[in-house]
Each structure stands twice: as C-alpha cells, then as structure tokens.
Amino acid sequence: MHEFRYKRNYLYCEDLKVIDLVKKFGSPLYVYSYKTILDHYLKLKSAFKEIDPIICYSVKANSNLAILKLLVKEGAGLDIVSGGELFRAIKVGCPAERIVYASVGKTDKEIEEAIKRRILFFNVESLSELENINRISQILNRITNVAIRINPDVEPKTHKFITTGKITNKFGIDFESAYKILNMHKRFAYLNICGLHIHIGSQITETTPYIYAISKMVKFIQKLKKEAINLKYLNIGGGLGIIYDKEKPQTAKEFADKILPLLKRTGLKIIMEPGRFIVGNAGILVTKVLYIKSTLKKKFIIVDSGMNDLIRPALYDAYHKILPLHITDSKLSKVDIVGPICESADFFAKDRVMPEVKEADFLAIMGTGAYGFSMSSNYNSRPRPAEVLVKKNRVYLIREREKYNDLIDKEIVPGFLKRWRR
Ligand code: PLP
C-alpha cells in the first residue's frame, strides 16, 4: 500500500531513514515516496486496462511540479480547476488533449486561456457557464469541447464537506436541466457538447455510491442515444477512498470489477479523475516535538508544524495516524498533539493513545500526500515546509522551505506611510 515502513525500529521511506531526511532538510518536512505514487497510478491503470480510460490525475490533491511530471511521463492526463493549475499542467508538458477542466466558478480569463490551449474539454457546471464559454469561443472563433457535469443526487457516505453529488451541493446540473440543455445544443453554436461528467465526493470507501450514480448515468446516456444525442466521453470523476485509520476501502481491482460492466454499457470513452487514491498514502509530514505540557486535564505534545501546513484535522476533523520516527519501548499515554498556532482548531490528534515521546523527538503524520501541502497557507506568517521526493535510496528536494522574505515578497508599503513621521 505504501513505502513507509519500520526497519530496525526506524521509520524508512523506501530505502532511506526518515530521520536522516529531517537532519538534512529540517523540520517540518513533507516526504513523498516515488514508488507509492507510481504503484497507485499503475494499479488503477491496470485494473481498467480493458477499457483504457484517460486517467486525469486531480492536480488539487498535490500540485507539486515533480509529482505532476512523474505522472504525466507515465501517460496520465490532468484534471484542473483553475488558471493556476492549467499553468502547472503546461509547465510539466501535459498534452492538452489529456487536460479536463472543472470548477463552478471559471473566470473569463481562465476560460480563454484554456480554449486557446485546446484542452480536451471543460466540465461545465451551469447554464450560465455554458453560455459564457459559448460567447468566449465565438470571440475566439473556436469550437470548444464541453462535458455537462451532472449532479446525480447520490449520498456518497463521506464527510459532509466532501460530498459533491447531492442535489443540495453547488456542483453540477440536475438530469432534467441537463436534458433540456442537450436538446437546445443548437443554441450553442460554438460548443461541441461531447460528454457528461460526475464527481460525487471524496474519500469514498464503498463502491455502492458509484454504482448508483453510474447506473443513473447509463440510463440517461441510453435515453439520449435513443434521441440521437450521441456523446463521446463519460467522466466519472475521482473520490476513491484510502486508508487513514481502520477504513477498508475498495481496491482498484474491486472497484473496476464492480463498475466495468456498467461503464462498458455506455460505449463511451471513460475519463477518471483520481487524486487522493494516487498520492494520499504516498506522503508524510514530519514534525518535531517542541514542548510537552501537562495541564489539569490534558497532556499536550506541542509540535513545530501547524494547521497552516496540514489543515485536514481542523477542517474535517480528519484522522491521521501519527508515528514516532524511532520506536522505543516507552509506555503509552493519552495526549493531544497540537501545533503552535493561535487557534484551538490547530491540532493533529485529540486524546490519542501514543507511545510516550520526549522533547526534540520527531513524529510522522501519515497519509498526508493528498490535500496536505496543496491546502497549506502562511497563516501566522509561517513559512511553508520543504517537500522532498524519495526514490529508492535517493532523495530529491522538490520544493524549498520558504524563507521569511517569501512571506512579504508581494507586499507593498505605500510611499506616504514610509515618509510618515510622528
Ligand atoms: N474531480 C473533481 C471534479 C473534484 O472536485 C475532485 C476533488 O475535489 C477530484 C476529482 C479528486 O478527488 P479525490 O482526490 O477524492 O480523488
């Protein structure tokens, strides 16, 4: 599942001792395993080889150029959601015909850039957006490929903040409205409506919600076919869950076995947009224990990383395993593991039973390859950690640790304030 293992009581990433990486690159530090990323991508590719889908890795999960390049070199496409992600996709040389673009709020500038690049298609989320892409395409005198994002109204059984396919979510278009749109396609002279898209949520550990959603799509596609509305692509989104704690998510193979028969019935080219499944378990965040503080009710382990580096626990109450880099035979105790930020939401674990650690020890926050660094910020004016990629017994710095100057680089103090004297 991943390449982080203990050998002789030390945590290793592939063939390297993680503690040596922190000594070299400092703390906090994001560490990624090349082999884990590649294995997950290849597992999915092989499970679905019968239909040879275009696997568009979801850039938002982890957008580091080295990770994007690794996947693009292996033949992956990219699922993007902003002009910035398009910029990254181009930087790593992703062929435009392997880029799909979702987002409920694409700006005119973003739409124009993507049209000019001739991406595979936009996943369109509303009638207004469709009209806007048509208008911009007319100005540019281009026919633009679009897929309609359907909101299939299914319950994906995941955290409420990461469900996206329920009718109360802001995403996609209901079947009835989509049907009307597909029937008035002549109104959009500059659009080629070539596909349908769904993305029902994230960290989905059961196949049932997918079966339910895709079955609805198959029915819809068949209805369209009968009316001679022929499409080319079905994009089934991402969302495959991983193990953070005790989850038992479907494997790529189990997932494929269940949904392949449905996908084949569509006769369409399938696109997938996995993010977490590929990178989630391929990364850890290493952090140093600064202080141990016991209060009347609690014992706190205060570490040098905070919610600015990894916001998932604060945002979703997400669980991440936390392991020492070096196992000793210390006894267990119940602790809260918290960061230095001035927010009570700045925690990584609450009431967690852990082997006792000492100040200056290091901990690994597991499963932080997805939505870790990519959701990080400079809150509390904290420079972001460095990121390294391990391949067998070699380590590559893939993002430098930020410096204080990076924090103020774009800020401007107006001249009148500089001249101001008391
Ligand atoms: N596709 C779309 C449209 C998304 O919004 C997301 C995540 O939010 C993904 C794909 C990737 O999801 P995951 O990382 O759960 O696979």
Overview of the structural elements:
The protein is an alpha/beta fold and 422 residues long. The protein folds into two domains: 4-31 and 280-408, Lyase, Ornithine Decarboxylase, Chain A, domain 1 (Beta Barrel); 34-278, Alpha-Beta Barrel (TIM Barrel). Helix content is 30%, strand content 24%. The chain has 13 helices and 20 strands. The protein is globular and about 70 Å long. It binds pyridoxal-5'-phosphate.
Count of extended strands: 20
User: Radius of gyration over alpha carbons?
Assistant: 23 Å
CATH architecture assignment of the largest domain: Alpha-Beta Barrel
Label the structural class.
alpha/beta
Q: What's the structural domain tally?
A: 2
CATH class of the largest domain: Alpha Beta
Taking all residues together, what is the mean pLDDT? 95
β-strand percent reads 15-25%
Superfamily at the CATH H level of the largest domain?
Alanine racemase
Main sheet attributes: strand count, strand direction, barrel closure: 9 strands, mixed
Q: Using the coordinates shown, work out and report the CATH topology of the largest domain.
A: TIM Barrel
List the helices and strands and how they pair.
Elements: E1 4-7, E2 10-13, E3 16-17, H1 18-25, E4 29-33, H2 34-47, E5 54-58, H3 65-73, E6 77-80, H4 83-91, E7 99-101, H5 108-117, E8 121-124, H6 127-140, E9 144-149, H7 175-183, E10 191-197, H8 208-226, E11 233-235, H9 252-266, E12 269-272, H10 276-279, E13 283-294, E14 299-303, H11 312-316, E15 322-324, E16 332-338, E17 347-355, E18 362-365, E19 386-391, E20 394-399, H12 404-408, H13 415-419
Parallel strand pairs: 4-19, 5-6, 5-12, 6-7, 7-8, 8-9, 9-10, 10-11, 11-12, 14-16
Antiparallel strand pairs: 1-2, 2-3, 4-13, 13-14, 13-18, 15-18, 16-17, 19-20
Helix pairs in contact: 2-9, 5-6, 8-9
